[in-house]
Amino acid sequence: MDYRLHRYRSACGRLDLAARDYPARDAAAPVLLMMHGLTRNSADFEPLAAHLAGDYRLVVPDQRGRGLSQWDPEPARYRPDVYAHDMLALLDGLGIARACLIGTSMGGLMAMVMNALRPDLASGFVFNDIGPVLDPAGIARIQGYVGPAGPMASWTEAAARCRASNAPAFPDYGSREWQAFARRTCREQADGRVVLDYDPAIAQSMAGDEPQTVPPDLWPLWEGLAGRPVLVVRGELSDLLSRETEREMAQRHAGPYSHADVPRVGHAPILDETPALAAILAFLKDHIG
């Protein structure tokens, strides 16, 4: 899958940010903006991009502090509303006026904020294991592993660390899957050691009883999606998006709504799992074009 690495300035003008831009075979094809979660980066969507590239134009950013994007010297700016403004700057710079927003976890929160800022932007929404209410158990788990961590001596050790943090979400993974997971979430330094591919300071946005990454009372933002098609993908073992919250999301959405459960997967599905991929392909065909 060939993509162009696009460089752009953050909305605040202070940071150099990066995004993958996968071209479509048809220049008029719909655009999908794919936004990763808290500790991930653009590589997180490689498995899904393998199924969508060519049929759609895929714009896949590294949020500030992740991947090839510059770290923010002010950690207080690691917040969904700040990221949302960065995304609008990205799309404006590429001349994109309309896109389907696909958001994993934090990326889904960003999608709701983006819709509040620019209601005419999104042609539809795919929310991956995220909703207006976040289960405290999932927040506590994330708080337990995000933040400073020492380098790892090899990719084998990196895979083991990823497994230690995420094994409950992917109980069927073997060594091959954990190696692939590590290579999407870590990077190798010049000295051969491997580190997590994000600024450890993002942990500050998850600290305390009211993390900055989790805006309060998201139901008004959810209800602001009225009229637009929505797909919600939920991991059956998710500790962040409860089944009760997903059902309430369906009840409170005034528009086309569909959902897919991914068996034996927690937070968050990779989106190449058979139920998730089938639901996404059908959703895009029916609502996005």
Structural summary, described in words:
This protein has 289 residues and is of the alpha/beta class. The chain contains 9 helices and 10 strands. 33% of the residues lie in helices and 19% in strands. The strands form 2 sheets. It has an 8-stranded mixed β-sheet with strand order 1-2-4-3-5-6-9-10, sandwiched between helices. Helix 2 crosses helix 3 and helix 5 packs across helix 6. The chain is globular and about 50 Å long. The mean pLDDT is 95.
Order of strands in the sheet with most strands: 1-2-4-3-5-6-9-10
Number of discrete helical segments: 9
Mean pLDDT: 95
How far apart the termini lie comes to 21 Å
Per DSSP, what share of the residues sits in E-state strands of 2 or more residues? 15-25%
- Beta strands, count: 10
Q: What is the helical fraction, as a range of percent? A: 25-40%
Topology:
Layout: E1 4-9, E2 16-22, E3 31-35, H1 46-52, E4 57-62, H2 80-93, E5 99-104, H3 106-117, E6 122-128, H4 136-145, H5 155-166, H6 175-185, E7 186-188, E8 194-196, H7 219-223, E9 230-235, H8 243-251, E10 257-262, H9 274-288
Parallel strand pairs: 3-4, 3-5, 5-6, 6-9, 9-10
Antiparallel strand pairs: 1-2, 2-4, 7-8
Helix pairs in contact: 2-3, 5-6
